[in-house]
């Protein structure tokens, strides 16, 4: 989508008028540039009561030279970011490029600058398709939407800046979606690394390191090694650093993502019906990549570290087994309860590595447990945290971004379930079975969050775990049907790129 903003000047081939409830007549400037006949049609529609501006209502007026779409926004006083964003998304989903790709959206009386940007962001987010591996229908229009957002002169400067930021952040979301939607035969651990290297190439303020199979063995990253050794496509760790020369001596955030490019379950193999969408098991790592793009594209000047923990979990002859014990990068040992609890294993290395950056805080993202989907569905990510300040900040950023999280418990009993191994420091499965298993998984991860400076007497580094198993992809993942989330149609969502960008840059 190409975007611009201007005053109430030229019209595109399609005109969108987002109007509030009770709009019995056209607001000032909304009909500028229309013919007398076109203006008459709009006025008649509003005066007749056929269009009342109620939330979710739309009316299309087919007129020569301009397709006019009236969009109901509901009560002006109660318009929040969620309604504005979702309405913009549903609007662009309903529009046809056959009526023209040049679109004018006119924000008139009652619109604040923030709500304008939310509406535009919704349009940008929903304007996504992934057609890399299929024949495009003959009637498919590949031309991009050209959308001009028009408003009064007093909003022009701020709107231009905010639209540019939103577009850059959404670009990061789309990168995350592209990675998540790729099939596992195309996107595997070292292919992710290659794409990251291509992205970083030529960017003077980006440092990228790849720990390949040999490096992982040299460092003793047993979480990655054991999960990935059953596959011919070996694991790796990708380390992003944005603005590596900035903030010398200061603590800055580190974001860690689970990147299982395909998860069969390994020896503890999944049933076939539970395996199809396991290409999405790398969406945490996809979010890390998308976040780095969003931060870079918006010109963020401070240091941020990102770690992608990548492996393919396959039941090959060299695969690890239930009952195995291996040593992680931290030196702590893990007894394998299930090879299908593999994400926490690679994250054990990633979290300990994150501690070496002496970060302000660590946030990890992982499609970790089916239990969180049972608990929270497909609209809310589970959140666990060891620090109240960062938990509050992240929850606020998530709410403002329309990507809600729900705080889940960490307590000694859940940790006891995991550390009650007779043969290792911790097990990767709970003696409590499936009950509370998203909580026990979080307790496992907490075990690998280091104390500040790796000193036993120091406090743990502030840490948040986001279980995105329910939000990383939606009910429409296997088809083009729209799921419950209007911001994306099918496949992966790119969840929390926007949340983390807001957390890092605004809070």
Q: What percent of residues are in strands?
A: 15-25%
Q: How many domains in all?
A: 2
Using DSSP, what is the number of strands? 17
Strand order within the widest beta sheet: 7-8-10-9-13-17-14-15
CATH homologous superfamily of the largest domain?
Zn peptidases
How many helices? 14
Cα(first) to Cα(last) distance is 29 Å
- The helix-and-strand class reads alpha/beta
User: How would you sum up the major sheet?
Assistant: 8 strands, mixed
**Rg from Cα:** 25 Å
Question: Uncertain runs with pLDDT below 50, 5 residues or more?
Answer: none
CATH topology of the largest domain: Aminopeptidase
Summarize the structure.
This protein has 507 residues and is an alpha/beta fold. Helices cover 33% and strands 18% of the residues.
Q: Key terms for this structure?
A:
507 residues, alpha/beta, Leucine Aminopeptidase, subunit E, domain 1, Aminopeptidase, eight-stranded mixed β-sheet, 33% helix, elongated
Task: Write structural notes for this entry.
The protein has 507 residues and is α/β, with parallel strands linked by helices. It folds into two domains: 2-151, Leucine Aminopeptidase, subunit E, domain 1 (3-Layer(aba) Sandwich); 170-506, Aminopeptidase, CATH 3.40.630.10. 33% of the residues lie in helices and 18% in strands. The strands form three sheets. Strands 7-8-10-9-13-17-14-15 form an eight-stranded mixed beta sheet, sandwiched between helices. A six-stranded mixed beta sheet has the order 1-6-5-2-4-3, with helices on both faces. It is elongated.
